[in-house]
């Protein structure tokens, strides 16, 4: 992992200027409308690291093309190429429809928000314990993103949070 940290150090320095770093892990070849709506509603002090699901190219997705063109605080390529455990060390909140990356986030001290009924079902025990959150709509999602912090004393870089 040390080699990967060296490889991606420049990118992490680049995003360090943002107040909050949000990781979105995708589960399909289409960017969920709720993800794009969140990006549009948050200010530029937030950055969005969108990890594309392997095997699902986005080159023709209209929402993807719009975000790449209009939002300098949205990153697709770097988050999709680096190890998931590494990126989890540097983010504040994780959002997904139902990705197993919720478990990776937990082990790195990052709180997750799930957006789908499948995520609600898969992670019901985590949700019941307050370790993962379920957002039914954009207002709930935005509230969680703004308020949630990393778990105390978890993850490699928890003193910075």
Would you kindly provide a written description of the structure presented here, covering whatever features stand out?
- With 161 residues, the protein is α/β, with parallel strands linked by helices.
- It is globular.
- The protein has nine helices and six strands.
- The C terminus is likely disordered.
- It has a single domain, classed as Glycogen Phosphorylase B (Rossmann fold, 3-Layer(aba) Sandwich), CATH 3.40.50.
- This is CDP-glycerol--glycerophosphate glycerophosphotransferase.
- InterPro entries: TagF_C.
Largest sheet: 6 strands, parallel
Q: Kindly identify the CATH topology.
A: Rossmann fold
Helix % is 40-55%
Shape: globular
Which regions contain 5 or more consecutive residues with pLDDT less than 50?
Answer: 155-161
- The CATH class, by name, is Alpha Beta
Instruction: Give a count of the beta strands, DSSP E runs of length 2 or more.
Output: 6
Please state the CA-atom Rg, rounded to the nearest Å.
15 Å
Organism: Phytopseudomonas daroniae
InterPro entries: TagF_C
Protein name: CDP-glycerol--glycerophosphate glycerophosphotransferase
């Amino acid at each position: 992992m040390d080699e990967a940290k060296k490889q991606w150090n420049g990118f992490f320095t680049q995003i360090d200027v943002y107040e909050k770093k949000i990781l979105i892990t995708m589960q399909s070849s289409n960017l969920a409308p709720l993800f794009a709506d969140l990006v549009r509603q948050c200010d530029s002090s937030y950055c969005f690291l969108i990890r594309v699901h392997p095997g699902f190219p986005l080159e023709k997705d209209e929402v993807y093309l719009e975000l790449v063109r209009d939002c300098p605080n949205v990153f697709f390529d770097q988050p999709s190429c680096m190890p998931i455990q590494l990126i989890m060390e540097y983010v504040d909140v994780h959002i997904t429809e139902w990705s197993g990356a919720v478990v990776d986030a937990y082990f790195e001290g990052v709180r997750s928000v799930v957006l789908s009924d499948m995520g609600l079902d898969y992670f019901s025990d985590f949700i019941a314990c307050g370790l993962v959150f379920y957002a039914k709509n954009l207002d709930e999602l935005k509230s969680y993103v703004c308020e949630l912090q990393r778990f105390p004393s978890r993850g490699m870089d928890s003193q910075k949070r």
